[in-house]
Amino acid sequence: MALFFWGTIFFFILFPASGLLFSAWLITTKRIFLKILMGFWIVILGLICSVIALAWFNSKTVLEKEDYYGQYVINRDYFCGPQADWQYNNFRFEIKKNDSIYFYITDKEKIFKTYKGTITTTKYYGSERLIINMEQPAHHIITSNPTTYRNAWSFYLVFCSPKFNNVYFKKGQWKPLDK
Predict the structure, then answer these.
(1) Hey, how many other C-beta atoms are within 10 angstroms of the C-beta on 63?
(2) Does the global pTM surpass 0.85?
(3) How far is the C-alpha of 134 from the C-alpha of 154, rounded, in Å?
(4) Do residues 101 and 117 make contact, with C-beta atoms less than 8 angstroms apart?
(5) Minimal CA–CA distance to 87: which of 6, 166, 1, 8?
(6) Contact of 100 with 120, CB cutoff 8 Å
(7) Which of 13, 32, 127, 162 is geometrically suited to a Cys-Cys bond with 63, CB 3.0 to 4.6 A?
(8) Tens of pLDDT along 125-159?
């Protein structure tokens, strides 16, 4: 529908206006008509390039399986305070290139317990979705597959925990919190 709209604009407004300006220049040989025509098309092409660039900059990241590999920490950007800090210091996980996942129960830098599993992805949508298969019994945070939320340049994972509700993870290395 949008293509039809813009095609109509070009065909019935922009091209006839350009033809009139070009004809006026041919008949009168006054350079002002040629300058107006050139300025007119520079503005139109500039607007088209701006729209294409904005669409590209604002498009969501398309994820592939390899994008999920790495370390994940609690995303404290959504919720702050003592509860988020506690989760950050007690939960993190890592997805390795051999498609294994390791979910860590920690006390800051010290790892107390590791839950192991494997990952696969599915591509029902334009972007691949993460599927985790954990050895049982699994920790309550990772009993279900995460929902992937994509931004223009990044993504984050949300696990639905029966005890904590939504738990947000982002890609990143664990670092001690500054207090």
Answers:
(1) 19
(2) no
(3) 25
(4) yes
(5) 166
(6) no
(7) 127
(8) 788 899 999 998 889 999 999 999 988 788 999 99
